[in-house]
Backbone:
């Protein structure tokens, strides 16, 4: 009998790995419970595909108990926002009481106790808490989502033919959220399929923002200019974007500082080795979403 799996992060806009993971598991016949803080079109869509829905908040202990009831394995996905340590502590405390055994944790590539990013340091601590709780854990440290181009830059690309950031000439390891979700689903379908507690998930493609702009130009058939902006200008440009919060903005700013002095994540073969599929590349993602980069 396939185990009931709790999938969190199903309404997230930063890659939507929770939604994609739940969808894949449902297609493979797994019983899935999806956790969300609110009713949402994505939640209703997954319920329509056969998932059980539960309204719960990481910061509400009793609601997390409802979400983890009779669950043996889970995908833990906290948004790129403040509060992950309390959320992890609540999740782990409840999980120990309810018999949770296996957790796939969506961490971040920059997770490190000495990272300049506060969120990355907290992500590293969250990994430690999950391990201390005694679960079998696999922590995924992924590259920079290609889908960030949609979240952060869709308007400027479509309306102004510009790609703005403070990354400058830094090389960045990229990955598709679809590939990360495929890895998550594989791990949840085959608990113990890897002996590694931490997996670095990238497409193998390492690109600067200028190279991204060049690819956009070639694929869209019009010139997209990359323009480097200082931190304060980029910070103010990010604030009005729906789905972006202050903690995420500061994380992005500090990520530019980190990458200016350290190499990007090394290329990995995790996607191909675990799922049997070749990772999606930037060109694939632009072609799949090219309508989003066109002027409305």
Residues:
């Amino acid at each position: 009998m396939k185990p009931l799996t709790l999938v969190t992060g199903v309404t997230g806009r930063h890659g939507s790995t929770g939604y994609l993971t739940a969808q894949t598991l449902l297609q493979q016949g797994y019983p899935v419970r999806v956790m969300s803080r609110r009713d949402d079109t994505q939640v209703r869509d997954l319920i329509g595909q056969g998932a059980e829905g539960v309204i719960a908040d990481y910061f509400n202990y009793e609601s997390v108990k409802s979400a983890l009831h009779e669950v043996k394995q889970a995908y833990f996905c906290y948004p790129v926002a403040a509060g992950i340590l309390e959320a992890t502590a609540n999740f782990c405390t409840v999980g120990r009481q309810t018999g949770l055994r296996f957790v796939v944790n969506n961490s971040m590539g920059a997770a490190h106790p000495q990272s300049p990013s506060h969120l990355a340091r907290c992500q590293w601590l969250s990994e430690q808490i999950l391990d201390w709780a005694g679960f079998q854990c696999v922590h995924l440290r992924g590259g920079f989502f290609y889908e960030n181009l949609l979240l952060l830059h869709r308007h400027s690309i479509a309306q102004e033919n510009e790609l703005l950031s403070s990354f400058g000439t830094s090389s960045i390891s990229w990955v598709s959220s679809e590939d990360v979700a495929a890895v998550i689903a594989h791990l949840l379908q085959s608990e113990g399929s890897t002996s590694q507690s931490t997996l670095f998930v990238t497409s193998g493609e390492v690109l600067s923002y200028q190279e991204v702009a060049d690819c956009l130009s070639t694929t869209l058939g019009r010139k997209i200019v990359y323009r480097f902006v200082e931190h304060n200008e980029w910070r103010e440009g990010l604030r009005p974007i729906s789905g972006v919060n202050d903690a995420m903005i500061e994380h992005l700013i500090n990520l530019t500082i980190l990458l200016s002095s350290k190499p990007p994540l090394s290329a990995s073969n995790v996607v191909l080795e675990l799922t049997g599929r070749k990772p999606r590349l930037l060109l694939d993602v632009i072609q799949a979403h090219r309508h989003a980069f066109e002027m409305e």
Summary: The first helix runs from residue 17 to 27.
